[in-house]
UniProtKB/TrEMBL annotation:
Keywords: Coiled coil, Membrane, Transmembrane, Transmembrane helix. Residues 104-131 form a coiled coil. The chain crosses the membrane at residues 32-56, 62-82. The keyword Transmembrane applies. This is Superfamily III holin-X.
Length: 154
C-alpha cells in the first residue's frame, strides 16, 4: 500500500513539474514575441516621426517612403502581438493532467482504504475491551481447546 502511495505522489509531482515547464515555455515564447512587437512598434514610431518631418519639410517623395516603412513596421508589430496571444499550452498538458488526476484519485482511494482499515481496527479493539470472550475467534478457541486436550491427556 505504501508503495502505491509513494508512486502516486511521485507521479503527481512529475506531472505538476511537466505542466509548469510547459507553461513556462509558452510564457517565454509569448514574452519573446511581445518584445519583438515592442521593438517593431518603437521602430515604427521613430519612422512615423521621420515621415512626419519629411512630409512637412519636403513635398512627398522621401516622406512617403518613410511612411510606408513605418506602416510595415506597425503591421509587423500587430502580427507578432496576435501570434503571441494565440500561443497556448495546448494538448501536451492535457495528457499529463489526466495522468496526474488518475494518480490523485488512486491516492485518495488508498487513503480512504487506510482510514477504513484503521477504523475497523479501532472498532475491533473497542469490541474486545467490551467483550473479551466474544472477541475470541473460533480458530483461536479451537487452538486453545486442542492445547487443553493435549495437556489433560499428559
Amino acid at each position: 500500500m505504501s508503495n502505491r502511495i509513494a508512486r502516486n505522489i511521485s507521479i503527481i509531482l512529475r506531472s505538476e513539474r511537466l505542466i509548469a515547464q510547459r507553461h513556462m515555455a509558452v510564457f517565454r515564447r509569448q514574452g519573446g514575441m511581445v518584445a519583438a512587437a515592442l521593438i517593431a512598434a518603437g521602430v515604427g514610431l521613430v519612422m512615423f516621426n521621420v515621415a512626419g518631418f519629411f512630409a512637412l519639410s519636403e513635398a512627398m517623395s522621401p516622406a512617403s517612403a518613410a511612411l510606408i516603412v513605418a506602416l510595415v513596421n506597425m503591421a509587423l508589430a500587430i502580427v507578432l502581438l496576435v501570434g503571441a496571444s494565440k500561443a497556448t499550452v495546448g494538448e501536451e498538458v492535457n495528457a499529463v493532467s489526466e495522468v496526474r488526476d488518475m494518480a490523485l484519485e488512486d491516492l485518495e482511494a488508498e487513503v480512504r482504504s487506510a482510514a477504513d482499515e484503521a477504523k475497523a481496527a479501532t472498532d475491533a479493539l473497542k469490541n474486545m475491551a467490551k467483550n473479551p470472550l466474544g472477541a475470541i475467534t473460533p480458530s483461536l478457541a479451537s487452538a486453545i481447546a486442542k492445547a487443553l486436550v493435549k495437556t489433560s491427556k499428559k
